[in-house]
Specification:
224 residues, mainly alpha, 3 strands, single chain
Length: 224
């Protein structure tokens, strides 16, 4: 098969790489990035980087500061509670619907992702933990096959990820809450309510820790 036909357009590739930088915690709240800095970091052209930034700002993951510079938003207490409200309203319901559509193949995939997540925790790999944690939730929610709700949830995760990175850095991966096994056990027995509750507890514990950590002083991250 022609590999060139499978190659993503450069603006899509740049967007996905920038998105993964945010989801993995490579960019922290308040950190400034410039177009030229991202051109170098993403190994991409100016136009694809501009488009990636435009998409990220429209999703709330970045905000313009002028002078060709953007920053990662800093969440306050009220915004954390907004994220909690939105995530608790949407994500547990996605779990309930996903439980109805669950298959052995998806269960196996979720178990594989959770095993990789546990390996990242054991290794103290914060970026690996964050990417695998995101992959677990998106794989689980994707089984609901909700075309309107999923983009909303993905945008919420982009808003939360930089702050989760700070929480991971302060607490260490060994102390991170893990409700995934509870969710998996419930899904295996067909208990959609218990699986949804496990994810609700996961959301609450994570955001409680984020709120506690963001109240502490932190050194600024370097500009990219």
């Amino acid at each position: 098969m022609d590999t060139d036909a499978q190659k993503l357009p450069e603006h899509v590739s740049a967007y996905r790489r920038l998105r993964d930088m945010i989801l993995s915690g490579q960019l922290a709240p308040g950190q400034a990035v410039t177009i030229q800095g991202l051109v170098k970091t993403l190994d991409s052209g100016v136009t694809p980087v501009r488009e990636a930034i435009r998409r990220m700002t429209s999703e709330g993951a970045l905000q313009f500061q002028g002078n060709r510079r953007v920053t990662v938003p800093v969440l306050g207490g009220d915004q954390i509670e907004e994220l909690r409200f939105a995530r608790l309203a949407l994500e547990p319901e996605l779990v309930r619907k996903s439980a109805e559509n669950m298959t052995p193949a998806i269960m196996d995939r979720l178990s594989q992702i959770d095993a990789a997540l546990n390996q990242a925790i054991a290794a103290g790999d914060i970026q690996g933990y964050m990417l695998q944690n995101h992959a677990f939730h998106m794989q689980l929610y994707g089984q609901a096959d909700y075309q309107i709700v999923m983009p909303l949830v993905q945008a919420l995760w982009l808003r939360a990820a930089p702050s989760l990175r700070i929480m991971c850095g302060r607490f260490g991966t060994q102390n991170l809450p893990d409700m995934h096994q509870r969710a998996l056990t419930a899904l295996r027995t067909g208990d959609a309510a218990a699986a949804a509750q496990a994810i609700s507890d996961d959301i609450n514990q994570g955001l409680d820790n984020v709120r506690a950590v963001l109240a502490l002083p932190a050194a600024p991250d370097p500009e990219i």
